[in-house]
Amino acid sequence: MTTSQRYAALLRGINVGGHKKVPMAELRALLTELGHGDVRTHLQSGNAAFTSAGTDPDALAAQLAEALRERFGFEVGVLVRDHAYLQALIDACPFPAAELEAKQLHITYLSRSVTPDELTRLDAASFLPEEYRPGDRALYLHTPEGLGRSRLADPLSRAIPASAGPATTRNWNTVVKLAELTGV
Question: Name one Pfam family in it (predicted).
């Protein structure tokens, strides 16, 4: 008997400003065609939850990225994470999530963890009160005025080593929703 696990797929940079359009109905269909079950999407920004017998999130991400390239004709960075990982990020949040608005708190998901030494060229103190903290294959970002008005978000994104990518950011509401969607 094959056991299945719930995963979240996070797609980078789709449906932004009319570029790299991937309709969510087509993403659901594609994941189903790849043999995954109970597929659900969240918002239009490339969030999907699904059940799979696959046990290697990186292999699942590579499979989906290749299928997206074949179907839509462009590259899409894809990260796949399981519920335990998503919940652990929420539990380890270094900022007071319960006291903040969702637009003030974000997680940038990465392929691998980055060390503070890798981000030393970024003078974090010059961006206060905005702050970031490294996590497990993630960066937590606190932006009191929201991501759209952040002075730190773009420099932080540029400071992330290419070897840590693809990197994709979600606000706290989406972070929590993905954990819920992948819960059993």
Answer: DUF1697
Tens digit of pLDDT per residue, the chain (184 long)?
Answer: 457 899 999 999 887 777 889 999 999 999 999 999 999 999 887 899 999 999 999 999 999 999 999 999 999 999 999 999 999 999 999 999 999 999 999 999 999 999 888 998 899 999 999 999 999 999 999 999 999 999 999 999 999 999 998 899 999 999 999 999 999 7
Burial of 99 (0-12, 13-18, 19+ CB in 10 A): exposed
Whole-structure pTM over 0.70, yes or no? Answer: yes
Residue 113, φ and ψ in degrees, nearest 5: -70, 150
Write down all domains in the chain, each with its CATH number in brackets.
5-82 (3.30.70.1280), 86-182 (no CATH)
Which residue has tokens 């972070």? Answer: 175
